[in-house]
Amino acid sequence: MKAHTYETQLTITPEKALNFLKEGNQRFVNNLKANRDLLEQVNATREGQWPFAVVLSCIDSRTSAELVFDQGLGDIFSIRIAGNFVNQDILGSMEFGCNVAGSKLVVVLGHTKCGALKGGLDAAQIEGMGMDNLNHLVDHFDLTIKEIIEEGEERSSKNSSLLERLNQQNVKNAIDDIRKQSSTLRKLEEEGKIKIVGANYDVETGVVTWL
């Protein structure tokens, strides 16, 4: 499988880009990798890159987008931050990927058993560790937790039901933030030039579920 070129990128629709990722995850789950010469792809992309998708995922070492979607060099822009949430710099990266570099799809990829979200649920314990920047990060999820937690429900990473609901809602909130905070991406989506979608990766099975 060769690296994408400017010409091949032009033929890709948002729907086709999504199918590329769905097919790639199916290969991953079945332990069937596409036949790629990565050194050939290095050579083919030395003058430029034409990725078809932007994937925002967590830094979790089990969730590399290139691996779980079986993609090669030059295929996707991969943005990673603990808890796969959106900020201004990430939005700028997405705008570059879609409006400048021509990608047709934005994916927010959450995952089961997310450590960052566990940290949000256990924020009181995290704060006692004296890590100011980590405290700031896990505080990002506090409003979402308060939105979804039920009266009397235990706020703890041991509450697997709450953790998974938080995972799903966190992905949805990130998509909402993309549309609300980036007029560029919102316009591209309204014009049908890109899709913005959410997905969830199961760390036990390797399966990506599309939300």
Describe the structure.
Helices cover 48% and strands 13% of the residues. It has 211 residues and is an alpha/beta fold. The protein has a single domain, classed as Carbonic anhydrase (Beta-carbonic Anhydrase, Chain A). A five-stranded mixed beta sheet has the order 2-1-3-4-5, sandwiched between helices. One of its GO terms (molecular function) is carbonate dehydratase activity. Belongs to the beta-class carbonic anhydrase family.
At a glance:
Its cofactor is Zn(2+). The protein is of the alpha/beta class.
Supply database-style keywords:
single chain, 211 residues, alpha/beta, Beta-carbonic Anhydrase, Chain A, five-stranded mixed sheet, 5 strands, globular
CATH topology: Beta-carbonic Anhydrase, Chain A
Derived structural class:
alpha/beta
Helix content: 40-55%
Gross CATH architecture: 3-Layer(aba) Sandwich
Keywords: Lyase, Metal-binding, Zinc
InterPro entries: Carbonic_anhydrase (IPR001765), Carbonic_anhydrase_sf (IPR036874)
Cofactor: Zn(2+)
Organism: Chryseobacterium defluvii
